[in-house]
Design goal:
The protein has about 725 residues and is α/β, with parallel strands linked by helices. The chain contains 31 helices and 20 strands. Bound molecules: pyridoxal-5'-phosphate.
Length: about 725
């Protein structure tokens, strides 16, 4: 196989008539555009599969003869021209939603900070839900035409890759990824120089370069400390996502927040709205206050000016999800900085104070909530829980008046829809269904899709999942990574006809992956039923430092390996966005069993619902507002007074009851032609009610209307 030396090297070898393929491969727009995906796939379907759908690598590796052949293929040229026309029209469109509804705002720019972004597996800088949400937010900001840019990290080693040993334990492996095989390039300053920044952190001076990724119309900027002028220690600072100790993490967050603001200045950008997605980037407020204080404002004036145009989204009620840095580390890195903010040490440390951390810890979420006038949780329930959690910041105010609202998460439909269902929706809901994805009237038409067509499409997608699982297992065996016994645990005995339940997410203990195994006899009866079999597919990573999470994976692996469970349970190694697509599209039921009220929102169930996969979940996070009694199954948690044991027992009991009495019978109740009418009715109800509400089109519009415009109009025009 040929390789080319640089990311732009492939352009040189492209025939003249296909010259713009290189440009297309460098803008992630292709990844959520079906015609774009098909175009790259048809260049070389095998290579497309082998490169994990990475067009940059595909164009570098494809044989020259193949390119020459395509340049003379009228069908391919037609396909190519149509995609390029659509790409140009997309980027030049002046009548976007934002332009037509908010065009009156004066030079708005929303800067969106996040520690991770999940856009595509060819840029592995995400770990899970938070990153995917940020990636989906960017794609939708592009689709809706928001003036918007993202600020994050380039992690040269990304997040860890998961391997499961023969004994069923998770191992973490970090593999460097090659920027030349990713759609990223060096970002340039207005004068055309590569953008570089320097951040003083205590005694360390850290330099960083900046990458950019084009995401449709918007740009994502990524900070990278792997530059020659840094010490080895500083070079490695941004090597891994969530990979270091507390001090590395603090330094990363200084880089993201403070470095991020400096980077925007170096790029010549002047945001009017600053959105911190989770507390990792909270320091951005400090740097902006410092800028204003240095220009002569008092601290109080500066803090208020910054507050008015800052948006903060909190993402979890789980205490471990909030960074708290010990004061001795804050002293090490901020002594000297607080003076520039016009603050004493005590006043500075008080910005991150909570009742729990008083006197010893600096809480990043507390800093963000104190410093942002526009704060939200990510579902109605999470908004309520967050008001309770943070009520102490507004002593004297009733809890429900605490100024934290909610914008419920959504998913970017074009990214998560299965191609087969996309076609079906185009036919029955209208060719522009994805552009109008938040309109209830569009989804009302789902009721009229003929049952057998919907069922046939669902079956096709499910067979694709089974093929994906089988081929992964086969590849593992061929390459000597799997023993024959492990091959069964990877799902080779799964049956495409059997009711298939998917459970894939981070293995945090509150998500209770093993709830279904509480009563093994009852579970066995469900799985082994000869006429109405049930099977389970698991996937997910546990953070390498999360011992209980790793133990949960081991427990699930034991069940997968238990011959008495007959190969009806599978665990798929190394969950990522690519696998997530197959899973959320291909199973029949999406299971979620968080311990209420710990699931802030969750989004995988929304991806499933868009594809006609029915949710069965504890009524927590988004599902608490999505469930209507007829569009899936909900498990009502016990009142908060119940202890964990009682709650677990109750939820498991309820889950078995639903499976035995409702889910399995409904799935296997068939017409003469084999169609499960009742099931399809529920699928349609799920599409009709969930798809329009839990998409990023609705979500980003909500952010614009409830948060961004309020923040933008309060930005002084003199900035
Ligand atoms: C959607 C997604 C998640 C988030 O799932 P939750 O429902 O929030 O648990 C995590 N990881 C990947 C790879 C995803 O695609």
């Amino acid at each position: 196989m040929e390789t080319t030396p640089s990311s732009n090297g492939s352009h040189g070898r492209l025939p003249q008539s296909l010259a713009r393929l290189g440009e297309l491969s460098q803008n992630l727009w292709w990844s959520w555009t079906p015609e774009g995906r098909r175009l790259f796939e048809s260049i070389d379907p095998t290579l497309w599969y082998l490169t994990h759908h990475n067009p940059v690598k595909l164009l570098a590796d494809v044989r020259s003869e193949r390119l020459t052949q395509l340049a003379q293929d009228p069908t391919f040229i037609r396909q190519y021209s149509a995609v390029m026309r659509a790409f140009d029209a997309y980027r030049q469109n002046t009548k976007t939603w934002f332009a037509t509804t908010h065009g009156q705002l004066d030079r708005p720019l929303i800067a969106y900070f996040s520690a991770e972004f999940g856009l595509h597996i060819s840029i592995p800088i995400y770990s899970g839900g938070l990153g995917i949400l940020a990636g989906d937010h960017c794609k939708e900001a592009s689709d809706l035409g928001l003036p918007f840019c993202g600020i994050g990290f380039m992690y040269p080693q990304g997040y860890f890759r998961q391997r499961i040993t023969a004994e069923g334990w998770q191992e973490a492996a970090y593999a460097p990824f090659n920027p030349e095989e990713s759609p990223i390039h060096p970002a340039l300053t207005p004068s055309g120089e590569p953008c570089k920044i320097t951040v003083q952190m205590g005694a360390r001076t850290v330099s960083a370069k900046v990458w950019k990724a084009d995401v449709g119309r918007i740009v994502l900027y990524l900070i990278d400390t792997d530059v020659p002028e840094n010490s080895p220690e500083n070079r490695a600072l941004s090597a891994r996502l969530y990979g270091g100790d507390q001090e590395i993490r603090l330094c990363q967050e200084i880089l993201l927040g403070i470095g991020g603001v400096r980077m925007l200045r170096a790029l010549g950008l002047s945001p009017t709205v600053w959105h911190a997605n989770e507390g990792h980037s909270s320091f951005l407020v400090l740097e902006r206050i410092r800028e204003l204080v240095q220009k002569g404002m008092s601290h109080a004036e500066a803090a208020e000016a910054v507050r008015q145009c800052t948006v903060f989204t909190t993402h979890t009620p789980v205490p471990a999800g909030h960074d708290v840095f010990p004061h001795h580390l804050m002293d090490r890195y901020f002594a000297g900085y607080w003076d520039q903010l016009g603050l004493s040490r005590d006043e500075f440390l008080r910005l991150g104070e909570t009742p729990e951390s008083r006197g010893h810890g600096f809480n990043m979420t507390a800093l963000a909530i104190r410093s942002a006038a526009h704060v939200n949780g990510v579902s109605r329930e999470h908004g309520r829980v967050s008001r309770e959690m943070w009520q102490h910041l507004w002593p004297g105010l009733a809890t429900d008046l605490a100024p934290i609202r909610h914008v419920t998460n959504g998913i970017h439909a074009p990214t998560w829809i299965a191609p087969e269902l996309n076609q079906l929706y185009a036919k029955h809901l209208g060719p522009d269904w994805a552009d109008q994805c938040d309109e209830e009237a569009v989804w009302q038409r789902a009721t009229d899709i003929p049952d057998h067509e919907l069922w046939a499409a669902r079956q096709t997608v499910k067979r694709k999942l089974m093929g994906f699982i089988r081929e992964r297992a086969r590849a593992g065996w061929i390459h000597g990574q799997l023993q024959p016994s492990q091959v069964i645990a990877r799902g080779t005995l799964l049956d495409p006809e059997a009711l298939t339940i998917g459970f894939a997410r981070r293995f945090a203990t509150y998500k209770r992956a093993t709830l279904l195994f509480r009563d093994l006899e009852r579970l066995k009866a469900l799985l082994q039923n000869q006429w109405r079999p049930v099977q389970l597919v698991f996937a997910g990573k546990a953070h390498p430092a999360d011992e209980p999470g790793r133990y949960f994976i081991h427990e699930v692996m034991n069940f997968c390996n238990d011959h008495k469970l007959g190969g009806h349970i599978a665990f798929l190694e190394d969950y990522d966005m690519h696998m997530a697509k197959f899973l959320v599209q291909g199973v029949d039921v999406w299971l979620n069993t968080p311990r209420w009220p710990m699931e802030a929102s969750g989004t995988s169930g929304q991806k499933a619902a868009l594809n006609g996969v029915i949710n069965c979940s504890v009524l927590d996070g988004w599902w608490q507002e999505g469930y209507n009694g007829a569009n899936g199954w909900g498990i009502q948690p016990l009142p908060p007074s119940a202890d964990q044991q009682t709650q677990d027992k109750h939820d498991a009991e309820e889950l078995y009851r639903l499976l035995e009495q409702e889910i399995v019978p409904l799935y296997y109740q068939r017409d003469l032609d084999g169609t499960p009418r009742g099931w399809i009715q529920m699928v349609k109800e799920c599409l009709r009610t969930i798809a329009p509400q839990f998409c990023t089109k609705r979500m980003v519009k909500d952010y614009v209307e409830t948060m961004y415009t309020a923040a933008a109009v309060r930005t002084p025009t003199t900035w």
